[in-house]
Design brief:
With 102 residues, this protein is mostly helical. 70% of the residues lie in helices and 0% in strands. The protein has one domain. It contains four helices and no strands. It is elongated.
C-alpha cells in the first residue's frame, strides 16, 4: 500500500495535507472493501480511526455550511455585508484609507 499505511492517523484539520492523507486513507479503505489488499489488524484499525475522523470532520463542516447558508439567506445580514463592502473605510482605520487613496 502507500506510505500513509505506516503513519499514525492525523486529525483532519482542513489543511491540504490533511485532505491528501484522508484521501489516501479512503483509497486504502476502498481497496480493503474490494478485497484487493489485505492488511494486518493494526493497519485496519488505523484506517477505521481515520475514517471516523473524516466522518466527524464532514459532520462538523455540514453544520457550519448549514449555518453559512442560513446567514446568506438572511436579507438583513446580506444588506449589512453589502453596505460594509461598498464602504471599506468602515472596516479600515482612517489612516489606512487616506493612504489607500493617495
Amino acid at each position: 500500500m502507500t506510505g500513509i499505511s505506516s503513519k499514525l492517523p492525523a486529525v483532519l484539520d482542513g489543511s491540504s495535507g490533511g485532505f491528501q492523507r484522508a484521501a489516501g486513507d479512503i483509497g486504502e479503505a476502498i481497496a480493503l472493501l474490494r478485497g484487493a489488499a489485505k492488511q494486518d489488524p493494526a493497519t485496519v484499525e488505523r484506517i477505521c480511526q481515520s475514517l471516523h475522523g473524516i466522518r466527524g470532520f464532514l459532520t462538523l463542516e455540514a453544520a457550519a455550511q448549514s449555518y453559512r447558508e442560513q446567514i446568506s439567506g438572511d436579507a438583513v445580514v446580506s444588506e449589512v455585508v453589502t453596505q460594509i463592502m461598498q464602504a471599506p473605510r468602515v472596516a479600515m482605520p482612517v489612516m489606512e484609507v487616506e493612504h489607500a487613496h493617495a
